[in-house]
Design goal:
Blueprint lengths: L2 H8 L2 H6 L7 H12 L5 E4 L6 H10 L7 E6 L2 H10 L6 E5 L11 E6 L12 H12 L9 H11 L1 E12 L8 H10 L3 E7 L13 E8 L8 E7 L2 H13 L6 E4 L10 H4 L2 E3 L13 E5 L6 H4 E2 L1 H6 L7 E5 L9 E2 L1 H9 L5 E3 L7 H12 L6 H4 L15 E4 L1 E2 L5 E4 L4 E2 L3 E6 L7 H8 L2 H7 L4 E2 L5 E2 L2 H5 L11 H15 L5 H14 L4 E4 L4
Helix pairs in contact: 3-4, 3-9, 19-20
C-alpha cells in the first residue's frame, strides 16, 4: 500500500475535502521533479507536501547518482506530514515542517520549487482580505480578494526562487479564464517567469477525486531572461499523450501547440483561447458580442431556497395569496426542454413542485407575517445573504428573462426560451434583450443553441474537469454573434418557423437543431479550426 492509499484509508473523507488534499499522480509528479532537477538544485521547497510524492520522486531519481539536494517539505496538517516522513525515514536530507506556508516566513531562497497547492475556494479561508493585502504590498501584485488560495501559493513560491532556479506547479486551469486570474497572469508575465504551460484536457482530469481540470506551469527565474522570451503552450489529451509529451518536453524535442512571445500574451484575455479557439473565416473582428444587443444576469439568490420557494400546496396551507408569490423556475430540471411555456408551469403547479418564490409586498398581510415569523424561528434571517439584506425577507428584484441559460453543463449549454415569462433562481442565468432588439428574441434563441454558437462558446467557458463546464454572465455576454441584419428574409422566416414548431411540440429538440444549423452555417461564418486569437 503506497502512502496515498494508506493515508486515505485512515483519514475521513470530510477532513481530506476540508483541507483540499488531492494527491498528485506519480507520473505527473515524476515529470515535474525531473523538470526542476535539470538545473541541479542544491535546495528544493515543497510548500504543500501532503504525503510526500514529490519528495519520494526526488529521492528515487537521485539514487542513480549525484549529490542529493536538501528538501524542505511543509504542510499545515501534521497527520499527513507524519505519513510523508514515515515513507522516507532513511532520507536525512529532508526536513519536515508543520506550518501554514502562506503565513510562515522563509528567508533563504530555494533553487527549485515543486508544488501541488491546496485548491480552496476563496471564501473558505479566514483573514483572506488581510492576507491578499499583505501579498500585494510584499510582492507588488494586484491580486483581488476573490483570488483562489492555489494562486497565493504560486505567487509566494515563485518569490522564493533563487536566480537561475526552476519551479513546477500543478494547479487548476480555472485561473486562465477567471476574472481574478488576470492579476495572476499579469504577475507571471511582468516578472518573466513562465517557460511553458501544459494543459491536461478536461476530458481526462488529473485528480480522480477532485472536480477540476489541471495545468502544469513550468517556471524559471533567469537572471538575464530576455523580455521577448517564448512561452510554450502544450496540451495533453489523455494519459498516453501526456507520457509521450512529457518525455519530449524533457529531452527538448516537443513541438508546442503554440510558442508565443511573452509580450503577446494578453492577461485580460481568457487564456483557454490560446488552447481551444475556433474563429470565423469571414471578418472575425467585425462580429458583435451578445452584449451588443442583450445583457446577462445571474438568477435570483434567495439565501435559503427551501424556505423562500413554495409549492401550490404550501402556498395554500400558509394562507398566502397569489399576489404574495411569483411564478419561478427553481431547479434546472423543471425546464428540461428548450421552450418553457405556460403549460409547463401549470404542470409544475398542479404537480405540487416548488415553483413559487416568496414575494412580500409593501404592506404585509397577517398570513405573510406568520410565514415570516416561522422563518425567524428557523433562523433563516441569520443566514449569510439574508442578514445582509434589508429587510431580510425581500427578494432580489428581477423581471422575467427572455432566455435562460444553464450555469453548469456537460457537452453544450442549454438555452431555454422563457415563453411563460416567469422568474428564475441561480440554476439559470437570464438573458435580457434590449428593447430595440426584442424582435430578434427567437432568432437569438435559435442561434445560441446552434452548433456554430457552440464553437464560439468554447473559448468563453470555464472547465472544471470530468466534462463539467460553467458559464458566468460575462462569459455569455462575450459570445460572438452573426450579423443578423445580413441574414436573408427567407432564412429568418425559416428559423422563426422552426421555433414555432418546437413551441407547439410538433418538432423535437434533435430535429429542431438539425433544421437551424444549416441556416447559420449558410450565413457564411464557417469555422476555420484552431487559431491563435486575434
Amino acid at each position: 500500500m503506497d502512502p496515498e492509499q494508506y493515508y486515505t484509508s485512515i483519514t475521513p473523507q470530510a477532513k481530506r475535502k476540508d483541507l483540499a488534499q488531492f494527491f498528485t499522480p506519480p507520473e505527473i509528479a515524476e515529470f515535474m521533479v525531473k523538470w526542476v532537477l535539470d538545473v541541479r538544485p542544491r535546495t528544493i521547497l515543497d510548500p504543500a507536501a501532503g504525503t510526500g510524492i514529490f519528495v519520494r520522486k526526488v529521492s528515487d531519481i537521485n539514487q542513480a547518482g549525484g549529490k542529493a539536494p536538501s528538501v524542505l517539505a511543509m504542510d499545515v496538517d501534521p497527520d499527513i506530514l507524519k505519513v510523508a516522513k514515515e515513507s522516507l525515514e532513511s532520507c536525512p536530507n529532508v526536513q519536515y515542517k508543520v506550518a501554514d506556508f502562506l503565513k510562515y516566513r522563509l528567508q533563504e531562497p530555494f533553487d527549485a520549487v515543486v508544488c501541488n497547492p491546496p485548491y480552496y475556494k476563496h471564501h473558505f479561508v479566514e483573514d483572506k482580505k488581510q492576507l491578499v493585502g499583505q501579498f500585494n504590498r510584499r510582492y507588488g501584485s494586484s491580486l483581488t480578494r476573490m483570488t483562489s488560495v492555489y494562486c497565493l501559493f504560486l505567487i509566494k513560491a515563485v518569490n522564493l526562487l533563487a536566480a537561475g532556479g526552476r519551479g513546477a506547479f500543478i494547479i487548476p486551469s480555472e485561473f486562465m479564464n477567471a476574472d481574478y486570474g488576470v492579476a495572476v497572469k499579469s504577475y507571471l508575465l511582468e516578472h518573466r517567469l513562465l517557460d511553458a504551460i501544459l494543459v491536461l484536457d478536461y476530458e481526462s482530469r488529473a485528480f480522480s477525486d477532485a472536480l477540476t481540470t489541471s495545468c502544469i506551469l513550468l517556471i524559471s527565474k533567469g537572471p538575464s531572461k530576455p523580455r521577448g522570451a517564448q512561452v510554450k503552450l502544450f496540451r495533453a489529451r489523455g494519459t498516453r499523450d501526456f507520457a509521450d509529451l512529457c518525455a519530449r518536453i524533457l529531452n527538448g524535442t516537443a513541438v508546442p501547440l503554440r510558442s508565443l512571445d511573452a509580450g503577446s500574451l494578453d492577461p485580460d484575455l481568457k487564456w483557454h483561447n490560446y488552447f481551444y479557439t475556433a474563429r470565423p473565416r469571414n471578418h472575425p473582428d467585425l462580429l458583435p458580442p451578445l452584449e451588443s444587443l442583450a445583457r446577462c444576469s445571474r438568477g435570483i439568490a434567495t439565501g435559503s431556497n427551501e424556505y423562500f420557494t413554495l409549492s401550490e400546496l404550501e402556498r395554500r396551507q400558509g394562507g398566502l395569496s397569489e399576489d404574495e408569490v411569483r411564478a419561478c423556475v427553481t431547479k434546472s430540471a423543471q425546464a428540461g426542454e428548450l421552450v418553457f411555456t405556460a403549460r409547463d408551469f401549470e404542470r409544475l403547479r398542479t404537480g405540487n413542485k416548488k415553483c413559487y418564490l416568496l414575494y412580500p409586498g409593501g404592506e404585509l398581510t397577517p398570513a405573510m407575517r406568520r410565514y415570516l415569523a416561522r422563518g425567524e424561528r428557523l433562523a433563516v434571517h441569520e443566514k449569510f445573504l439574508t442578514r445582509n439584506r434589508h429587510p431580510w425577507y425581500r427578494p432580489e428584484q428581477r423581471s422575467p428573462a427572455d432566455i435562460w441559460v444553464t450555469v453548469f453543463y456537460r457537452g453544450r449549454p442549454r438555452f431555454v426560451l422563457n415563453e411563460a415569462r416567469i422568474l428564475n433562481l441561480t440554476t439559470f442565468h437570464g438573458i435580457y434583450l434590449r428593447p430595440s432588439f426584442s424582435s430578434l428574441r427567437e432568432i437569438l434563441f435559435a442561434y445560441l443553441n446552434s452548433s456554430l454558437c457552440a464553437e464560439f462558446i468554447r473559448p468563453q467557458r470555464r472547465e472544471y474537469g470530468d466534462g463539467l463546464l460553467k458559464l458566468e454572465p460575462r462569459d455569455v455576454e462575450r459570445i460572438l454573434l452573426p450579423e443578423f441584419a445580413r441574414m436573408s428574409g427567407p432564412d429568418l422566416d425559416a428559423v422563426r418557423d422552426a421555433v414555432a414548431l418546437l413551441r407547439e411540440g410538433r418538432l423535437d429538440t434533435g430535429r429542431f437543431l438539425e433544421s437551424i444549423d444549416p441556416v447559420f452555417e449558410r450565413f457564411g461564418t464557417g469555422l476555420s479550426g484552431e487559431h491563435s486569437p486575434a
